Amino acid sequence: MVFSPGAATAGVFRCDRFRRQRIGTLRLATLLLTASLLPALQPAQAQLAGHGGPVRAIAVSADGKTVLSGSFDTAAIRWSLATESAEQVLRFHSDAVNAVAFLVDGRMATAGADGRIAIWTLGRPQPDQVLEGHTGPIVGLAVSPDASRLASASWDHTVRLWSLSDGTSRVLEGHSQNVNGAAFTPDGRSLVSVGYDLTARVWHLADGTSEIATLPASLNAVAVAPDGEIVAGAADGKLRMLTPDGKESGEVMAAATPIVALTVSNDGALIAAAGIGGTVVIVNRKARSVLRTLVGPGMPVWSVGFLPDGATLLTGGADGKIRRWNVLTGEAIGSNLLGTPADPLAAYAGDHGAEVFRACVACHTLSESEVQRAGPTLAGLFGRKIASLPGYRFSEALKAMDIVWTPETVSRLFEIGPNAYTPGTKMPEQHIGSAEDRRALTDFLTRATSK
């Protein structure tokens, strides 16, 4: 669960994937099943289906023929859009693959919650190069316009600039909290980064100085248009536009839930912004207006990417599928909506605790009979020692703690936040400020996880 630090009312919280990752890999059984299925992938009626967890990242090749995706299942997949099938599965990372990028000469980059960047060559089973230096999960990648440098955004509060020729790096420090995204300006002279600390920073790469814009909400994603305008997606559901030197120049209310991913079309005309609620809005950037909303199966959308034509959008969902959309009409291309899942909380309609928990269903199940999601199941939660669930890879920091989950300890976790209650955890900082909401949540969990 992730709770917006800038919420106007105490206790109002919002889930943000990309912020809500209780990062860890899926169960070994799930990974083995995925591995057995991937070699036999078949065209999927305009769906690219093969990941064993939410699709966290999407990159589209310059010619629009190939897609690279990264998932909570620790794998990246290179897809052919012509055949709608997987051409290569990239396995290296020990944790969620949060960011992917196409480089030049057929090379690719993947980055993960394990803090590493892998550089791949087309067709080779192992990376040619591994870039290490970050001490926290990497959640964003950007390639410089001249293709000579790679920028990485990390939850270790830093941005790094990597030389793609020799692998050397330069650290940009200044953010006080997790950095969630980075993007180069069109001339390649500056880099923009955004983070939980409410700031967007425009780094002047020649001298390392930066312009700082402090905004009203935490920032989860960033893109830069061809004319240099900066677009940031915020936890309050707004898109905020900045001038190339970091001055606020406009905003668009895009969603009722946090924006967790965004992209700008190649011509700069359109913005696609994904909210944790499961919808994607298409925005006319110049007019500052919402053109249409794309409605999918109702699960969070973690990643978006325009094809070069600017008329087709790819979205990566919590169900592990990549879908195509006609941006001009708002219609799904192919059988995108087949297999829409039932609401996992339908049986709890009217239960306040269930509504508090709704922000958590993207990553946590309530019973062991449900398909494993990105986070550990909460079945049998109360009475269980922290980080003791078999088959789930927890951080070493959690394993060393002597906490047993009870209504009181869960309430305390969200009262003071994970950083204070479970220091060293990979879980991002989050709170439920209302004692009433915390009690409703723990009462619900008592009922729902003991079945």
Automatic annotation (TrEMBL):
SMART domains (UniProt xref): WD40
Keywords attached to this entry: Electron transport, Heme, Iron, Metal-binding, Repeat, Transport, WD repeat
InterPro entries to which the protein is assigned, alphabetical: Cyt_c-like_dom, Cyt_c-like_dom_sf, Cyt_c_1A/1B, WD40/YVTN_repeat-like_dom_sf, WD40_PAC1, WD40_repeat_dom_sf, WD40_rpt
SUPFAM superfamilies per UniProt: Cytochrome c, WD40 repeat-like
Keyword Iron recorded: yes
Positions of WD repeats: 48-89, 90-122, 131-172, 172-213, 294-335
Alphabetical list of Gene3D superfamilies matching this protein: Cytochrome c-like domain, YVTN repeat-like/Quinoprotein amine dehydrogenase
Domain Cytochrome c: 348-449
GO function term, MF aspect, one: heme binding
Domain of life: Bacteria
Matching PANTHER family: TRANSCRIPTION INITIATION FACTOR TFIID (PTHR19879), TRANSCRIPTION INITIATION FACTOR TFIID SUBUNIT 5 (PTHR19879:SF9)
Protein name stated in the entry: WD-40 repeat-containing protein
Species in which this protein is naturally found: Bradyrhizobium sacchari
